[in-house]
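Bug report (template v2)

What were you trying to do?
Predict the complex of my protein with S-adenosylmethionine.

What happened?
Run completed; filing so the output is reviewed.

Input:
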Amino acid sequence: MRHLIDRLFQGERLTRAEFQDLVLCEDQEMLELLFRRAKERTEEVFGNHVYIRGLIEISSYCKQDCFYCGLRCSNHKAQRYRLSPNEIIATCEKGYEMGFRTFVLQGGEDDYYTDDAICELIREICLSCPGSAVTLSLGEKGKRAYEAFRKAGASRYLLRHETATAEHFSRLHPPSQRLQSRMEALATLKDLGFQVGAGFMVGSPFQTAENLAEDLYFLQEFRPHMVGIGPFIPHQDTPFGKYPAGDSGQTVKMIAITRGILPGALIPATTALATLSKDARGRALQAGANVVMPNLSPEAVRVKYNLYNNKLSTGTESAQMLAALREELEGYGRKMDLSRGDSPLWKA
Ligand code: SAM
């Protein structure tokens, strides 16, 4: 195992079988070595900085029907809302005053916002928050839409692949959603010059060690600029409501391996991880994560963006608690960095 960890951090390509050995490793001494190496590699590339992104959840309407997600269109108990363009811009401006220089507009796949309306929104944010990065996370769209968003000034796009195994993907989604089109969307985004975020859930129903190894192998081949890795957490009003949540330790392990694969990646300590376990965000930040995304959405709508049970939206997940977040990060020996924090692998 030590040899495998050495090779991972020497930048060597690993096979699927080797990734699977890492996924299955439970030797405490080896895991500590893996976490230490991941932390050192993060510091070599990024120093002790942790980048802060302002997350704005713009709509809880979604036309998709992912079996794991509380926003799925078949969940008739979900509370739906959408923010108006003016509300979104005002939220960005408030964040800008607080020092935020990245705004992540995330939402369900909601056709209420036309591509033109999204472009107009991007342009307005770029004008009213100069020097900021606009990140989109609005699901699968066509090439023309992505192209227009890029032209309008968006520079990053988060689209988790969820699982890189087609058979597993088809057990998490209805037949209308296919892994192939998700992968094509990711490739298109990269070709268009976006900083692209892929990622997956850990512990999603039916997931095997082989599936996780495939996810890591995919990251090695595709080389995204950002990687979102969080535990699956059940939502009571979905078909997966009775499945157990993913494990926080296994999630931190996946983050550490990902740091070995992609030294320059921006890897968040996700809200799902913080929801699952109190100290998990700290553990992730000590093992390769270097991004935190506090929630900037207006307080009144936060509980309605309910992806999974007990989702955190207060405490240090809220921008009002920026001072507390700074303190928490300093406790891990890390420095809160509100600057744009572009990927070192990206050229504007
Ligand atoms: N609609 C956009 C998309 O699909 O990319 C963005 C919003 S979607 C809700 C954001 C992410 O939430 C998904 O990529 C998924 O990994 C995560 N998510 C959804 N349901 C979840 C659950 N039950 N547990 C953990 N993460 C979940």
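What did the reviewer find?
The chain has a mean pLDDT of 94. The beta strands are 49-52, 54-59, 102-107, 133-137, 154-158, 195-202, 226-231, 291-292, 335-337.
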